[in-house]
Amino acid sequence: MFAIAKKVDNIHGRPWIGFQSWHAAGRKVSLSTEAEKVLEETIQENTRGDVIYFWARMDMNEGFQNALTFWSMCDILNGGYCRNAFEDAFRHMYGLPSHIEALPPMPEDGGHWSALHSWVMPTPSFLEFVMFSRMFADSLDALHTNNSKRNICLLGSSDIEKKHCYCRILEVLVNVWAYHSGRKMVLIDPHSGSLQEQHPVELRQGHMWAKYFNISLLKRMDEDLAEAADDGDRPSEMWLWPLTGEVHWQGIYEREREQRYRLKMDKKRKTREKLFERMKYGYKQKSLGG
Hints:
By secondary structure, this protein is of the alpha+beta class. Helices cover 48% and strands 7% of the residues.
């Protein structure tokens, strides 16, 4: 996902972008031809507003039938450490003091949540989500790297999950971002294509932590990290953030603009010098065969 976001201008020129994990086919929740048709027609008709369509439900993911909360399910998927890891990473990311709550509330309203990285959203929203995800992943990695047990992945239960330590917690991150940034969340039945809104935006008032997901704040945080990376001011030897995408801040743009200006002035200077030389000595034509 990070790799695609980095090259999105070159490889993806469409207004919407989506993913479907190969796990979805194994869980029998990949989109049918009918559902794909409904989804395509829906996004073509409704071009306004930020909305995420998803079709792999979190409660489908592991076959649990009991009524679990978002965070309890996340704990099950991450070796029992999801809540602690998420709260610590969120606190570290925003520099929150210990007395401030750092685990975003997720409602128990009977609605469903996205799983298995199977969703579609507008491309600008995707880039905003990736901006948030890069910083969250970096914060999570910083805590893991600084841990005395950094070679042990507490979030995984199987060997492959331990090898890809953050995959399961990042898989459900889109729900926290979508809910608290005010995105409309719509579940599409992967077989019939029927649509049903989840966690209606108008019912989230008083529950959203919108200030932490404000795009202006996220852009400032992103620029601060980019400036640090550009200056070589690494917070640790194994700093993940610069490796997850592009590094851009205003200083880089200004430096590139200044460099282009210098090249332009240098070209003009050489042109003037060549013109002056011709005026002084005349135009010298090379001899034929010389």
